[in-house]
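Fold sample X.
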Amino acid sequence: MRGLILVVASGCGFSVTAGVGADGGPTPDVIGVDAAMIDAPIVDDTDDDDDGILDIDDNCPLTANPDQHDEDADVRGDRCDPCPQLANADIDMDGDQIGDACDPHPTTPGDVLVVFDGFPVAVSLPTGWTQIGGFNGDWVVSGDTLRLDTHDTPHLLRYDAGAGRTTIDLAIDANLPGANVPSMTAIVDGDATLTTFSACSVLVTEQTRRLQTFANGSFSASADVPGTVTIPGLHRIVAKTDATGMACTFSPGAGMSASFAGGNRQSVGLRIRNLRVAIHYIAIYRSP
């Protein structure tokens, strides 16, 4: 009877092995397991994402991030953080895998993080960005920031965010190089050359710090930003487009919105003039 069982099992693609147990007696028959595997030790992979950082020391143990960059210092690396630029406590009410503190629409699902860059690696121009205006080498990544000294020449930086409404969120530390009126502009809904766009711009004059919005490249509305005249210090600018217009915030400072018939164009970016800037991070989101 046992011989018959062996023939049938073998015909089904199984194997039966038997060996000598620790007490000298036979070990139970094991189906589908090679005898050599029974005594093999279990190997624990201590670097699950194979990025060269042991899991115990890795701030993204399941996502490769050899640079270990952590922009918001929440002990979670940028590449696995649902809100890499702001501490968020894993709150994601709409379940779209973007933390509420960063989500352009925290109660409506569908937003997608296109790119986040905290600039951990020193390069001339970050991957995916196109420079418009100025000279090669003007933009330099150094000290975890993207740096630029524009003087009187406007410098633009463009990224293709893909189809859909867009949001650009960035933090800038700026200083004034001279007497000319400086500006820093977050561009959304732009064309391929950033000739036509909508944008949120902060201008600094001797009298005021002014938040302005532009629709299709033309001045649309403005509001004075509360605070001192000088610009040094870390400032966050968020510009986003929706179905009927654009919302703009400047922190610390003010927020405003403007209505326009957007073209649903794919380019987002920056325009800097008369400023020395250190950009700490740039996040780009796409919304349905």
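Fold sample Y, listed below.
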Amino acid sequence: MIQILQVFVLCAIFTLCGYGFVSEQKDSPQYNISEQSASRVVGFSFLSFFLMLMRLVPLDLIINNEVGKIVVSKFIEADAEMIKIDDETGDLIKCKVQSMQLPEELGCINHIFCDKTGTLTKNELRFRGISFKGHLSQGTDTEKIL
């Protein structure tokens, strides 16, 4: 997504630079652009730059990315553990992926909180300390972290 945005920004910059160059060369016969056709020339130059710069983002990369999202979504929908039984009718309700960004959002997990310390210990969770905005809290003691 960022690469496509970069292509659009580059196209806009090149179009503005090209229009500035052409507007300075008004007397030259090869750049004879009237006021009425100026907007068409800018539009065509933007499209020309877009077609040239679009090779920066390979099309097969975009297609492979989208196909991968579809395949992962179908695997999520076909998962047997994602089936729920309706309490009123007793019907099976299958999972339905309604957003293609779901596989991307599943990969954004940063922290997993667990209440176990390990299988070889007593499996007790002991609070040692926590830090919020630079303040360290350990039990009842609080001190400023430098």
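Sample Y note: DSSP finds four helices and five strands in the chain.
Also: The first strand starts at residue 84 and ends at 85.
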